[in-house]
Amino acid sequence: MSWHPSLAATAIAAAAALCLMLPEVLPPYITSRDVLQPPGPAHWLGTNDIGQDVLTGLLRATPNTVLIALLTAAAALVLSILFAGLTVTGPRWLQRTLMRVVDVLQIVPSVLVILLVAAWVQPDLGGIALLLALTIWPDDVRVLRTVFRRELIRENVAVARRLGGSWAYCLGRHVLPAIAPVLVGLFLQHVRQAALKTAGLGFLGLTDPRLVTWGGMMQDALDYLHTSAWIWLLVPPAACLTLFLHGVLRAGGQLEHAGQTVKAGLT
């Protein structure tokens, strides 16, 4: 499957808008006396241990999880573009300083940082997206730095510079459009990472308990693995997470492959 970058951007914006609107029209995720009911006419996917409808939970967890993934991916990509741009256009001392900062951030185990911060603050939707973005972006700086250097020596950029164009202008008008497939590929990688890490934080109970996520729903099944209830408590959210990750992988197509090819060439 091959997407034009503008089509990919439109699809991402539409998905984010849909995620923002869905919670307003979905039924409430409320408790009831129907505790641990198996799937049936009243509750198509059963209920959990406090009588909440599993299908309603899935419908409410989906926009939360998807929106966190999109926000994380967008924020991480913007940060990596800014830092990578400064490392190729800034003064020598700034380039060296920023690359040392990136090296330090890559050495620090990001998973440990995420777990410690999440256990301390139990972040909500925005907090999770910010936390994940701040731990993901350093991985892309070297990739984008190499791509920027390649593009900045092209003739169209040299002409723009001779005509008085700034580095920011050249990056925005010449470099970024030329490497759009790479950017979309990196964005989709971030979406997958964010979805997995969000599910992991929810599964460990390290997010705001009021935030419904697929990982949080899977956590509800832990106390019932010895009963048949685990089937309707664990399988639906796990299946949703699997299908989402598979869909992102398929949607990336050739654009994601381009980004992976660049990264593979640096290792």
The largest β sheet comes out as: none
Radius of gyration: 22 Å
Query: Which range best describes the helical content: under 10%, 10-25%, 25-40%, 40-55%, 55-70% or over 70%?
Result: over 70%
Weakly predicted, low-confidence segments: 262-267
Overview of this protein structure:
- With 267 residues, the protein is mainly α.
- It contains eleven helices and no strands.
- Mean pLDDT is 88; it is low at 262-267.
- The longest helix is centred in the C-terminal third of the chain and has 37 residues, at 230-266.
List keywords for this structure.
single chain; 267 residues; mainly alpha; disordered C terminus
Question: Would you summarize the structure shown here?
Answer:
With 267 residues, the chain is mainly α. It has 11 helices and no strands.
Helices, strands, pairings?
Layout: H1 5-25, H2 54-89, H3 92-107, H4 110-121, H5 125-136, H6 138-152, H7 155-162, H8 167-178, H9 180-203, H10 214-219, H11 230-266
Helix pairs in contact: 1-2, 2-3, 2-5, 2-6, 2-9, 2-11, 4-5, 5-9, 7-8, 9-11
